[in-house]
Amino acid sequence: MIITQKKPIEELMAMVGDAKRIGIVGCSSCATACATGGPKEVEALKKYLEEQGKTVVVTGVAEYCCMNLGVKGTLKPFQDQNLDCVIGMSCGDGVQVVANNINVPVYPSNNTMFLGEAKKLGLFEEACHLCGDCVLGTTGGVCPISRCAKSLVNGPCGGAKNGKCEVNPENDCAWILIYNRLKDTNQLDKLSQLRKDKGYKEVAYPRTINIRGKK
Ligand code: SF4
Ligand code: SF4
């Protein structure tokens, strides 16, 4: 899921500025799991804004802020309300979807951090950098791009100490994890396979994928 963190409230208030009439949109998917944009957080922000003398005219929580059609529906009550701004409490993708569907300034309440795994309630670990050419099949299911501090596709770098990464000793060395996983699953032959450089410069952003068979 997409992991988000709340921006400092001063930063959000600086964006809101003099705006008086405000709408808030939350997301019942990833942002709810991260406690950054679920119904509880939407209500808490509404209360805070009202304490600051703002009028929160309308709130809504989209099922997925990254889905255009659902967001359109959630925003119906926001239209023609003479809003000065809308605050998007989701990931950066969701905030862009909201901004595409309403003609007032839209401000993000969150910073979008990474695509990761919820290890436990409230504990999130970065897991994938969306590289577009997944190599997990040769690395024992451990991502070398997101879990190695140098994103080495042919590691290790040689700097690990006691199984920990030389860049951040709080983290396990990804390549030691890869070695151990390959060993445990009888795939050690894959360790010596040369994985090709990621060649990020060849990626033209933004990428679009169309599986509709039409535009
Ligand atoms: S190699 Fe890593 S970054 Fe690339 S798609 Fe697979 S999990 Fe994601
Ligand atoms: S110590 Fe391991 S995880 Fe850290 S940069 Fe080197 S290979 Fe990557």
Write structural notes for this entry.
With 215 residues, the chain is of the alpha/beta class. The chain folds into two domains: 2-113, Rossmann fold, CATH 3.40.50; 129-202, no CATH class. It is 27% helix and 21% strand. It contains seven helices and seven strands. It has helices spanning 9-16, 30-33, 39-51, 68-75, 92-100, 144-147, 174-184, and strands spanning 2-6, 21-27, 55-62, 85-89, 106-108, 110-120, 123-128. The strands form two sheets. The chain has a four-stranded parallel beta sheet, sandwiched between helices. A hairpin with a 2-residue loop joins strand 6 and strand 7. The longest helix is centred in the N-terminal third of the chain and has 13 residues, at 39-51. The protein is elongated. The model has no long low-confidence stretch (mean pLDDT 96). The structure holds iron/sulfur cluster (2 copies). One iron/sulfur cluster is lined by residues 128-131, 134-136, 143, 145-146.
